[in-house]
Write a structure and sequence with these properties.
Distance between the termini: 61 Å
Number of domains: 2
Strand content: 15-25%
Shape: elongated
Radius of gyration: 21 Å
Strand order of the largest sheet: 5-6-7-9-8
Order of helices and strands: EEHEHEHHEHHEEHHEE
Number of helices: 8
CATH architecture of the largest domain: 2-Layer Sandwich
CATH class of the largest domain: Alpha Beta
Structural class: alpha+beta
Helix content: 25-40%
Oligomer: single chain
CATH superfamily of the largest domain: Histidine kinase-like ATPase, C-terminal domain
Largest sheet: 5 strands, antiparallel
CATH topology of the largest domain: Heat Shock Protein 90
Amino acid sequence: MRAEVNSLSNTQIATIEQVGSDIVKIKVLDGIDPNNAVEDLCILFEKIFKAGYNQILFDMQNVQFPNGSFIAMLIENTHKARRFGGDVQIIHLSEMARNHLAIFTPLTYLTIGMEAVSRWDLVSEFHTSTLAEYEDFEKGDSKTIDVDAVVDSLNVITHFVTVLAQKAGLKQVDLSKLKIAVYEVCMNIIEHGYMFEPDHSIHVQALWKDHRFEVNIIDHGKPFDFYNEDGYNVEEAVEEKRNSGFGLYIIKRSVDEVKYKSDPEKGNRLTLIKYIEE
């Protein structure tokens, strides 16, 4: 016997609404920081499952910047719903939130015991073949790739950079941050520089310089006013549900240095620098 949804709706973090006879919709309340409400949301999901509902719509309208813990919570409860023969479907997903989901990997959430796992064991099977190709990458070297400026190239670019950065000695947490920054830069080029138009390319150069790892990303799309993006207020952006500028905010917080230069002939060059800890 299913409990009435009204009996579950006494919560300060989300609204619960019955949609049809079998589906429940959860929507995080406006003004709530969803990343700080993960534990409460897990409890809410558990109550819904115990009440006999396993078909759930999760409304992401008020969730713009999900972190690793929030995404892991969604995955965990989707798994539970499917075990019960149901599912969790995400609705009203913004482009920014979609990007956060796309760049989530287990290594951005899980804690890896480095004494038990070698650096090479952290690399996926795809990475392993790439590592073999760049086995000769040493301090003072640089490697480059040119790829089509399409969304399908994002994994190729981030794999290329993270494999070489790992070879240079970046720690796992810094690899994850660098991957996020590279993804944001290239997604911005594809979306805003080239406006998703085909037949364009992105040139990526990775350099190992003494105690730093440098990534140069070059395109010939529409440049942007890099230096007018300073002073971004993330709290105001969340309150106003404004996505513009957040990508650069993420990039600057993910690396140690960012440089940008636009040239009509040579193209737009954005440089990301991560320091290598000894």
